[in-house]
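Please review this one:
***
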Amino acid sequence: MSKVAGSIRGMPASGRADETDGGPPTAMTGLQSEAFGPWLGRQLRRAGMSQAQLAVELGKTRAAVSAWITGRAEPREDVKAHIARILGTDLASLVTRTADVPLDLPLAWRHRPAHADGGREYGNVAAFAFDADLSVLAREATQNSLDERLETHQPVRVNYMLHELSGDHLDTFLKGVHWDELSAHYEQAAAGGQKVSRGLRAALDELSDSRSLLLLRIDDYNAFGLTGPEYGDGRYAAVVRRTLDSHKTAGGHAGGSYGLGKATLWATSRFGLVLVNSTLGEAHEGRTHRRVVGRLDLPWHTLDGEAYAGPAWFGEPETDPERKDVARSWWADESTVRDLHLERTSDEPGTSFLVVGAHDASGDAETLQEMHDKCVRSLADGFWAAMIGGRDAGPLLEARVTTLRNGQVVIPEERVDPHAHHPALARALQAYLDGETVPELTAGDQVAHAQVPLVVTPLKRTGRVRDKGREHLAVLLLTPADDTDERFNRIVCMRGNRMTITEQRPRDLPLGTMPFQAVLLAGYATGRTGEDVDLAEAFLRASEPPEHDRWDRTEELTTSYERGALSRIKEFRHGIDKAARSLAVRREATRSGGPSVLRELLTLDTDTTAGAGPRRTQSFPTVRTLSAHLEDTGAWNVTVTLKLPDADDPWLLTPVAKFDVRSGGRPTIAWSLLVGSESCRAEGGHIIVEPGVRTAVFTGVTDPATHPVKGAFARLAVDILQPRKGAA
C-alpha cells in the first residue's frame, strides 16, 4: 500500500450517513467519466483498503463512505481532495475518473484450480468442434467480426497479420507474456497421454529446437469490441470467461448462434494461448482503450502437489476478496501492448486477437507464403459476397492480409478482392445490388434472376391448426461462368450478412448446359425487410450445424418447429435446383469471346445437314445416381447410373474423374479400370451406349498413383463429357 498515505486508526463505534453535501455527480463534458461510487469502491479494493479504514482516515463515519460507494451521495470537494491524497493521486483524477489510480499490481497467470468433485477435462471440448485449419479460423473469426459491426453505414475492416519471431524478438515477446511462469505448467500438461498433451509436447519440442514462433493477429475495426463487465453478462465475458455463450446482438442478422466459433482461436494455437487487446465501443470503468487479457487452455494437470483444471488467465490480480486468486483484464499502456505485439493501428473500436504458435493442422500450409495465401483464399471464399457493395450501400466487410518476420514485412499487405477471386459470382451479386438483373439470359455476361419459395414452418405452440407456414421468396442469381473458373455449375447459398453457408450442384443438369455460376440469397441476404424475411432467417439459422455449412436436420430445427420442417428444407433445396436448371437452359446466350476448350467439351455435337434439323431430340444424357467407396489400396471405386433419352445414334461419353479439393483447382486423375456394367461397354476410355437404351450403368476404379493427395483427403467428382465426334 505504498501509494496510500496516512495511518490506519480504529473505527468509530457508530456513525451517520448524512456527512456529505448530497450534490449531484460531477458532469465532465467530453469525457467518459465513471460514476463516483463504483470508481471509489474499485480503488479501495485495488489499494487493499476497506471502507471502514477510509472512514477513519477521513474522520467520517462508515455509513457516509458506504453512501458514496452505493451512489446515494457524493462527498464535498474538500473531502474529495483528502480522498485523493489518501489514494496517492491528484484531485483531477478523482474528478474525471477516466482511469484507475496507478498501483504496482503485478501481471501474472492465474490458473483455475481442479474441480473439487474430481472431474477432469483433458482439453476444451469446444475446440474439437472444428478442425484447427486456417480456413476454418478465417471463417469463424471473420464471421464474429461481421456480426459485431458497429456503424452499419461503414464496413467492418479485418486485418490478418502473420508474424514470425526469432532471436531477440522472440525473447522479448516470451518475457512479456511471462513464459517462465507457464513453462512448468506446460511441461506437466504435456506429460499426459491424451491428444492435447501429445500436441503440446510436439509444440514445445519444436519451439526449443527452432527457436522461432509464429504469431497470427486478427484485428477488426468498426466493431463493438469486448464490452461489458469482467464477470457479468457481456461480450467480454462471453469470449474470455465462458464457453458456448454466443451473446449475439446483431438484431437477428448474426451468422453464428452456438458460441463455438471463438474456440477456433485457441484451437489454432499449438500452445492453446491467445492474447486479447480491445478498444471498446462503449466505456467500461470509464475507459475504452487497451483492455488487455490473456487466456490459456490446457488439459487437467498437477504441479507441486496442486491439481489444476486447465484454463488460466493473464492479467492483474483481482482485488475483490470474493474472487481471490483470479486474474482480470487490465488497462495496458502503449509499451506493454507493443511488447506483446497487440498494438492497434487506430483508435476505432474493435478487438485484436493474437494466436500464439499459430499453425494449420490440415497440412496444406506450412511456409509463410502458403499460410499467407491460404488466409487470403479463405477470406475470399467465405466472404466474397460481404465485400461487394451496390449503388445504395457499400460493402459489409473489407479484409487484408500481411506477413512479417521479426518486424519486417516479407509479404506486403494484400487486400482481398472478391472480383479477382470469384469474378462471375461477384458479377452476379453486383448486378443484383445495382438492380441490373434480367429474367432470362439472352446475350453476353448477363445475370438472370428467379425467385425460389421457402415455406417456413411455424414454431411449436405458436401456429394455428393446419397452418402450413409462411412463404419467403429467396433470390437465385445465375450468370455464365468465367473462362478462368475451375469450378462451375454450382450454387453458392447464403443468408444474413452474406457469408457463404453452403454450395450445391444441381442434379440432372443436361449435358450441353452452359457452364454457370449461381448465388442463392435468402433471409436478410436478399436486402429486403418484412416478417417473412425475419422468419426465414431464423428458420435457416436453426437448420445449420455449428459449422454453419449446410441447411439440414438439426436438433434445434426438429425441437423448435412443427412437424414437416425438414421436408420444407428439402423442398427448398429441390426448388433451388429446379430454378437453376430453368435459368441455365432457357436461353441462347452468346459471349463476346470465343468458347473455351472446356465449354466445347461440354457441348453436344448435333451434326446437322443443310435444310435438316438435328438428328437427335433436344435432350441429353444425365447422371442419375453415383455411388462410391474407398478401397484399401487408396483407389476410389465408383458406380455411375446414366439416364439417357431416345436417340438414333450410339452415345459416346467420356467419364473424367477429378478430386474436389478444399481449395484451388480440381485435379484430374486417371482410371485404372473402366467397365460397362449394364447396357453399355467401355472402349478406349469411353463409355458407349447403343441407341434405344434409356438406362446404363458403368463402373470405374481410379489409379492411386495419379492421386495428388490421398483419396481419403478429398471428395471425388465425376464429369461425363461428350467428345466432338458423338457417334461410335
Remarks:
- The CA atoms of residues 89 and 254 lie 44 Å apart.
- The radius of gyration is 32 Å.
- The chain has a mean pLDDT of 83.
